[in-house]
Records
---
Amino acid sequence: MLTFDDYREGASALSEKLGGFRPEVLIILGSGLGNLGDRLTDPIVIPYREIPHMRFSTAPGHKGRFLAGRLGGRNVLMMQGRLHIYEGWAAEDAVFPVRIAKLIGVESMIVTNAAGGINTGFKPGELMLISDFIKLNCVNPLIGPNIEKFGPRFPDMSKVFDREYMAKFRAVAEAKGENIHEGVYFYCTGPQYETPAEIRAMRLLGADAVGMSTVPECIAARHCGMRILGITLVTNMAAGILDKPLSGEEVIEAGNASSERLSSYVEEFLERM
Ligand code: HPA
């Protein structure tokens, strides 16, 4: 298990590589959504492999590096590529960057992801503000000795996603003429896509979208008191809704197709934040 000293070592290495730059917001970029990084002029680039105790990204469309710079009038730290549990990383590894960001003073997190639409009112290419999540499996970054310096043994999860941030992001999208959805994200570890029976079960349980990321990071971020905005891009309809198989290529392509639009919303959200 990682100890608090390991997080501290990771945080000091990150801080050192950032020089005097002090990020306020951590932005985690989902599949195909990595080009928000292009909006930073002269970013500080830090490959994950240069941070002690940190794992690296192996998923397609995930570069595996931090980018730091100014965006929307804020100092941001971006993860161009996240760490997924399906890559073989432990849950605590997947949330390591969130915790070291907190240790260097980051108090807010924006997470984006690609997900399958379970709600049949959704269409690929549409955005959903995450209002809550469902995680019924045992994967959990907080299992193990609690690190009190991050948060309590039994943290409250009754409002994981910040209501003020949600309203502001919605206002940004509406000002651009887009009405976005709001809904519940169901977390599956993957890497296989779900079965149609699983999707029907998730719908009965109240889920609107399904994906293989985000929830571990949000649990760790709430544990240490960060404010969170979660945005899902519906890249495909979930298994069994349409009569066609799901593919990773389709997800990346749909991510790329919406990346510019979502990036512009995030930038404007940062201005209003
Ligand atoms: N299921 C799980 N994860 C996903 C999906 C999906 O349909 N689409 C994008 N990520």
---
Amino acid sequence: MDYNKIFEDIYTELSKIDNKGVVAEYIPELSKIDPNKFGVQLTTVEGDKFAFGDWDERFSIQSIAKVFSYVLAYSLIKSDLWDRVGVEPSGTAFNSLVQLESDKGIPRNPFINAGAIVVCDILVSELEKPKEDILTFIRELSGINSINFNSRVAESERSTGFTNMALVNFMKSFGNIHNDIEEVMDLYFNLCSIEMNCMEVSKSFLFLANNGVVPYSGKSILSPSRTKRANALMQSCGFYDESGQFTFKVGLPGKSGVGGGIVAVHPQRYCITVWSPPLNPKGNSYKGMLFLEEFTTRTELSIF
Ligand code: GLN
């Protein structure tokens, strides 16, 4: 299939639509990004690559990184992960506090902020150097050693991260955070600040399209059964209170971030990453969502 032509056609179509999205402003560093940036990249499990626009420019992957931290915790660590974080869609915003009280400090899933903070707490408990180890893990998945944190973004988020600090304190009061809050949040803010381009994100998610094995290195990251679970979690929880919409319209497991990136996985076939910074009110890329909907509709390639 000529994916490059399809990318160009959809892009041309979408440029006629007024972008109603707004770039994330609650993290000051993210508000500086040019809202007209647009990139898309698809890598197949066989290694074929297709790309369009600003696909090779790095952006802040933000919550896309929550998949890496969750997979690292799930793959390397024998711990009480599922006693401390659930597997249900939250139906609430990514940074919501409301459910945590009735759920006694147990976040609904690892992809909302509270869930990712618990995963960071587990990584701090289990790893000697959690920051270095998460970077090493992502570099290993992508095969690209220059992937790194952006300390300006991490600092910017720390300086305005009052809601995230409320989440971690609240969970600590229920006994669901075991380590020093500063240490856990240092890992969380750095995790969110990782920068990658569309190609690097697609490549590093490819093991999820390949039964848990990185296709180009042959390294097994997750068993097929755990890979199924990771994809299922992305399907039901990857877009916060818009996860149902994404499933309904795009029909693939995926994950978004407030940097405007979205990655979607077609098991046994490919990973596709779109980047367009302006966000819809749910915190997901406005044009990224539309692009992927159009892509799976035109190609008739979805899991449903
Ligand atoms: N770093 C962001 C935050 O904690 C991540 C949110 C997101 O990408 N949805 O608010």
